[in-house]
Amino acid sequence: MTADLIGRLREVVGPSGLISDPGEMAGYLTDWRNAYTGTAAAVVRPGSTEEVAGVVALCREAGVAVVPQGGNTGLCGGAIPDSSGRQVVLSLTRMRRIRDLDAANQTITVEAGAVLQSVQEAAAAAGRLFPLSLGAQGSCTIGGNLATNAGGTGVLRYGTTRDLTLGLEVVLPDGRVWNGLRGLRKDNTGYDLKQLFIGAEGTLGVITAAVLKLFPAVRSRATAWVALPGPQAAVDLIGVLRGLAGDRLTGFEIMSRQSVELVLRHSSGARDPFGDRHPWYALVELSDSLPVAGLDGVIESALGEAFEHGLVVDAVVAANPAQAAALWALREGISEAQNHEGPSLKHDVTVPVSRIPAFVEGTDRALEGAVPGIRIVTYGHIGDGNLHYNLSKPVGSGDEEFRARAGALARVIYDSTRAFDGSISAEHGLGQSKRGIIADYKDSLELDLMRGLKQLFDPRGLMNPGKLL
Question: Is the pLDDT at 43 greater than 90, yes or no?
């Protein structure tokens, strides 16, 4: 990259909006797990959509690739540049404004760099709910959530980020700005263009703002921690809960005993809700907009019915918000706790809910056959079929030896996922980590159509190259 282009970019974003010092750029060039590291000619931090458009247009003119980045909390390296040193990282973190909140229309319009938690708080201040909830919500951005079609714990009731989005503003690869910020729930005027950019991981354009759906505020909750004999019981319990609670069933998370043990071992203050060990657990949450909705009675009735059918071994219902938070901490602490055990081989798969029990049984058996003593850390949003199927090394084995098996072990999981009509990425995206193998697990015609869209929008291949495709 020439000094002339650096100077022209600085003119667009101002002196504080461009970083070229290697030390100052470091935090933008490595993901939070230190799994992916690249280099860049510069990090550009525009403060407006107009500045984003100016940056993209200049880079296109110079033939320089752009890597959009939000909170840099991804797990697949999708926001990290390559090692060439010729790419520009385009960080949206200065664009954090809440542009509008329309309570009557139940919408909020936010810029892509807005942190998810700040959007939740803005909605709450207006007596509304923005239901997207992730472990990284204090640092991930709306732009990143959109780019990966993030899921989280509320998908069971509210859907993914795609379902929560009504309109987008996008800077296209040629620098033009598409203003699709329409808060309409009905717009039958042709192709729904916003859907092309959601989940595209910045390969078709740079999302700069979005109109998101809001919902009535939650005024009552009931939370329970449930011991289960196995995954089949979890699937059956979802049916019982849906039958009694309907759409008040907001969350249903499943965790293996191995997952919970890691949290109990490494998370300060974590306590086992039961005196006995159980093979599987579920975290169940009901919610309602009514302040007095009788949810404790509903969840207790459902658990009582489940006990009668042998689906539940033990259960505890949180008596207050502090107890509910402690139960959620057991679930949300799994990923971090696993990192204390050496390499964590993370996989994010989805299969039809009805097939989860057979999938878990068959995949566990195949992994244990491949690496005796392997520790399988399985947990996730079982209500929508999404499992985080993570692996830790056998006790006493070496880190590098285990890392060397990562590709082969991923194949075991992905082959099993395909056999059960699933997907090798439920909510983390493809990024760098799965780009090389997606062709083995996705229909060739689908990939041809995706490549055609990429060629149409970005014929020079300058938008986040080396990711997704």
Answer: yes
